[in-house]
């Protein structure tokens, strides 16, 4: 991931089999990017509250630098905190909450800036994110293209950032968004990628 970012690639897919500790791997990546000031603020995007709560627990319990966890080193806005402030370095949010924040400017609230984050990490990016529906020429006359755009894609397209998808099972729609996997890791005990997590 770091090499691709250094090479200017702004969308990438990481495929790691179930049990290979995708979240922990990503947590180390996030810590390095924040510590080295490559990114100022990262959005960790999930499609369900349960995934966000699992990530939050990992961010609070896994040691990432010295004897500290990510949550001890940086201000982390948790899944239940809808707003972030200037000191927030990592924000865990659901796709649904981000869509709500993107559309609430209609009710007088300020719109989310496209440069609010420097990087979006999408956990389990294969799940719950359907392909945008294609419109026929006749439908273009009376329907807006935005009506067919998936919420997931709407959030990703709003922010001008590095986008990283994490998945165990790359699907056609995730490859269409993030590109072919830049890294693939299989197995569960002794991994094909050369790491032994026993």
TrEMBL record:
Residues 3-188 form the Helicase ATP-binding domain. It comes from the Bacteria. SUPFAM superfamilies: P-loop containing nucleoside triphosphate hydrolases (SSF52540). SMART domains: DEXDc. One of its GO terms (molecular function) is DNA binding. GO terms for cellular component: cytosol. This is Helicase ATP-binding domain-containing protein.
